[in-house]
Design goal:
Helices cover 35% and strands 17% of the residues. By secondary structure, the protein is of the alpha/beta class. Strand 2, helix 6 and strand 3 form a beta-alpha-beta unit. The longest helix has 15 residues, at 59-73. The chain binds adenosine-5-diphosphoribose. Adenosine-5-diphosphoribose (APR) binds next to strand 8.
Length: 257
C-alpha cells in the first residue's frame, strides 16, 4: 500500500487542479452511519421518508423519521481527520474544489471553503410556501411539521429528496470542476445514486487520474479507479497528509545549534 500512497501523493502534488468527491463514508468516523451496507441507515429506516411526494402527502410522518435521523442523532457530529486534511489541502492550494453528496455540513465545519453541496444541506430548513430559509438551530422540531414564522407554510429540510431535482448551481459547478480536474479524489461512496454518481465518470472522460479511498470496492473501483487506497478515510488521509506535508527538517531538530 505504501507505494500506492506515494504514487497518489505525487499525483496530488503535481495536479494543477484537484477535485474531491465525497460520500457518506467520509463521515462514518464522525459517528454518522452510511446509507448502505452494514449498519446502513436504509437497513433501519424506509427511504420513502425522503421521497418528495411522500413528504408532501405525509409531512408529519416523514418529519418524525427525518428528525430522528438527521437532527436528534446526527446533529452533534463533528468533522474527523479526513475532513480536516481536505481543508488543509485546500488551504495549501492542493485542492481546487470539493463536491459532496453529504448533507451533514462537516466539510464546512472543518474549514473547507469551495464546497458544492450536490444534495443540499441539513443545517438549512426552507419554507415550501415562501422559500424563506432558516438555520436548523432556529427551528423547533417539537411540533411537527415545523411551519414558517412568516407565512405559516410547511418547512422542509433543504436537502434533496428522492424525486427532487438537484439544484442548478451545484450541478453546473460539479460538471465544470469535474471536466477541469487533473486529479479526482473519491472518498467514501458506493456510486449508487444518480445523477451524483456520473460526476466521477465525467472527470475520467476528461482525463483525470482517479484516486479512490474506501474500505470496500465501489461501483468505480474496477471501472474507472486508477489508484485504489483501500481503508478508512481517516487512516488513509492521515497517511496521505504525512506524504503531502512532510514535517520541515528544522521541525525535528531539538534546538541543537
Ligand atoms: N471511510 C471511507 N469510506 C467508508 C467508511 C470509512 N470509514 N465506511 C464506509 N465507507 C464507504 C462504504 O464502503 C460505502 O462505499 O462509504 C460508502 C457509503 O456508501 P453509501 O451509504 O451508499 O453512501 P453514498 O455513496 O454517499 O450515498 C449517496 O445516497 O441515500 C442517498 O442522498 C443519499 O448522498 C446519499 C447518496
Amino acid at each position: 500500500m505504501t507505494d500506492r500512497l506515494e504514487e497518489a501523493a505525487q499525483i496530488l502534488k503535481r495536479s494543477r487542479f484537484t477535485t474531491a468527491f465525497t460520500g457518506a463514508g467520509i463521515s462514518v468516523e464522525s459517528g454518522i452511519p452510511s446509507f448502505r451496507g452494514q449498519d446502513g441507515l436504509w437497513e433501519k429506516y424506509d427511504p420513502k421518508v425522503l421521497d418528495l411526494q411522500y413528504f408532501l402527502s405525509n409531512p408529519v410522518e416523514s418529519w418524525k423519521v427525518i428528525r430522528e435521523i438527521f437532527y436528534d442523532f446526527i446533529g452533534a457530529a463533528k468533522p474527523n481527520h479526513a475532513h480536516l486534511v481536505l481543508a488543509r489541502m485546500e488551504e495549501e492550494g492542493m485542492l481546487g474544489s470539493t463536491i459532496t453528496q453529504n448533507i451533514d455540513n462537516l466539510h464546512q465545519e472543518a474549514g473547507l471553503l469551495m464546497v458544492s453541496e450536490f444534495h443540499g444541506n441539513s443545517k438549512r430548513i426552507r419554507c415550501l410556501q415562501c422559500d424563506r430559509v432558516y438555520h436548523s438551530l432556529d427551528i423547533s422540531l417539537e411540533n411537527l411539521p415545523p411551519t414558517c414564522r412568516e407565512c405559516g407554510g410547511v418547512l422542509k429540510p433543504d436537502f434533496v429528496f428522492f424525486g427532487e431535482a438537484i439544484p442548478q448551481q451545484p450541478l453546473g459547478e460539479a460538471y465544470r470542476v469535474a471536466s477541469l480536474s487533473e486529479a479526482f479524489l473519491i472518498i467514501g461512496t458506493t456510486g449508487e445514486v444518480m445523477p451524483a454518481n456520473q460526476i466521477p465518470l465525467i472527470a475520467k472522460e476528461y482525463g483525470a487520474t482517479i484516486i479512490e479511498i474506501n474500505p470496500e470496492p465501489s461501483n468505480y473501483t474496477e471501472h474507472i479507479t486508477d489508484i485504489f487506497l483501500q481503508g478508512k478515510a481517516t487512516v488513509i488521509m492521515q497517511s496521505l497528509e504525512k506524504l503531502l506535508f512532510p514535517p520541515a527538517l528544522n521541525d525535528n531538530q531539538d534546538g541543537v545549534d
